[in-house]
Amino acid sequence: MEQIEKQEKRIMLTGDRPTGKLHIGHYVGSLRRRVELQEAGGFDEMYVMIADTQALTDNAGNPQKVRDNVIEVALDYLSVGLDPEKTTIFVQSHVPQLFELTCYYLDLVTLSRLERNPTVKNELAQREFGESIPAGFLCYPVSQASDITAFGANIVPVGEDQAPMIEQCNEIVHKFNSLYGETLVPAKIMLPENDACKRLPGTDGKAKMSKSLGNCIYLSDDAKTVSKKVMTMFTDPTHLRIEDPGHTENNPVFIYLSAFVKDEHFQKFLPQYHNFEELKAHYERGGLGDVTVKRFLADVLNDTLEPIRQRRKHFEANIPEVYRILEEGSIKAAQKANETVMKVRRALGVNYFENKKLIEKQSKAYKKKLADEEKMNAYLAKQKKAN
Ligand code: TRP
Questions:
Q1: Which pLDDT score is estimated for 7?
Q2: Can you tell me the distance from the alpha carbon of 302 to that of 221, in angstroms, rounded to the nearest whole number?
Q3: What is the whole-number distance in angstroms between the Cα of residue 100 and the centre of ligand 1?
Q4: Which of 56, 221, 259, 317 could form a disulfide linkage to 225, CB 3.0–4.6 angstroms apart?
């Protein structure tokens, strides 16, 4: 009975590596949705993790980068509206139970399976490890399976690139359960809903926003910086004069708009249009200039980011409070993870110290052995005397 109830609980877990501050691509791709899910209240438990240990798997030589970005990501989380009262925000390194699980799971995974993981393969291609791949990096899908299963998370909202991670996690779940009995809960991926939201291109039109390409708009950028970045954005290269028909597809300005704009933004900033469809139609038939569209986009972005900036300001003035939130979240997360660790230890039979039956059985066996030895000794002594 208890088992069934537990299975039906809706538990969400997701996280980010703290290797940089978060940008508007993260916002539309994941953060916005997390806050919506939090506010909708459809989950029994929600966890958001700052994956510092995972970030170290390819930053072992630069722990300061990871350390500095833990607070950046925490500020980003709190400023978009993740609420520690509703969502447990925690730091991976401070939940040691995860690493115990990882050690058990590592025995259920082959090296070749890890090497075939498409996400790992992809990331290896982007890094220059050569022959020196850190073992921790190659194995991070296993540690990610621990992150998920430790909380019994059955819903994991992540980008498409993480699908192979969830798949490998579930392989571990099934292997564990089939070897040791039903213990772990399989997870389902929850992908972003809207195509435009899956991945925002960079401001330069490159496929991805990336810090190293300098084509990101950060959640922490002020209004002026955002406007400046938008005005330099790549648009439709065939749209040379205002009268020319323009393309809205593959046009980063329109992709950003599709991810952010609401009808009310038109009333507020561009009342000559009622909605996005009208604006797009005008651009496509010609007669609408890039500058007008860019100014509108800057207004839309700043309107969206303003409440985020206000909350950030509050937390920036209270940094010790932010660390306290992370500490309390980590303590809470560790308690939850500990329940899973105890179940896993029981399933594996390594729960020596709480296992009264085991202690009794071993104790009895050894008592018998001692008694037998004593008997034998007494017999031998008697024999010796007799001789
Ligand atoms: N791998 C994820 C990323 O790079 C971060 C992450 C770590 C994660 N553990 C997780 C995401 C568990 C979801 C669930 O963004």
A1: 53
A2: 10
A3: 18
A4: 221
The owner of tokens 């597809």 is: 249
Taking CB atoms and a 6 Å cutoff, what residues make up the pocket around ligand 1?
A: 13-17, 49, 51, 54, 144, 147-148, 156, 158, 162
> With contact defined as beta carbons under 8 Å apart, do 15 and 51 qualify?
yes
pTM, two decimals, is: 0.91
> Which residues 6+ apart lie within 8 Å of 180 measured at CB?
347, 348
> How large is the average pLDDT for residues 45-54?
98
User: Which residue is closest in CA terms to ligand 1's atom 6?
Assistant: 15
Cα-to-centroid distance, 179 and ligand 1 (Å): 26
What DSSP line would sit under 280-328, residue for residue? HHHHHHS---HHHHHHHHHHHHHHHHHHHHHHHHHHHTTHHHHHHHHHH
Pocket mutation for ligand 1, best pick of 12, 14, 143 (most atoms within 8 Å of C-beta): 14
Distance between first and last Cα of the chain: 68
**φ, ψ at 88 (rounded to 5°):** -80, 115
The amino acid occupying position 17 is: R
Ligand 1 centroid – CA 226 distance (Å):
28
Residue 14 Cα, ligand 1 centroid: separation in angstroms? 6
How many Å apart are CA 9 and CA 366, to the nearest integer?
44
How many angstroms does the Cα of residue 192 sit away from the middle of ligand 1?
A: 15
Distance CA 244, CA 246 (A): 6
Please, which pLDDT band fits residue 191 given cuts at 50, 70 and 90?
confident
- Cβ burial of 216 (10 Å; 0-12, 13-18, 19+) is buried
1 or 354, which is more confident: 354
* φ, ψ for residue 14, nearest 5 deg: -155, 180
CA of 16 to the centre of ligand 1 (A): 5
- Tell me the DSSP string of 205-236: S-SS--GGGT---BTT--HHHHHHHHHT----
Distance CA 192, CA 189 (A): 10
Which atom of ligand 1 is closest in space to residue 14's alpha carbon? 13
User: From atom 3 of ligand 1, which residue's Cα is the shortest distance away?
Assistant: 16
77 near 48, Cβ under 8 Å? Answer: yes
Going by alpha carbons, the residue nearest to atom 13 of ligand 1 is 14
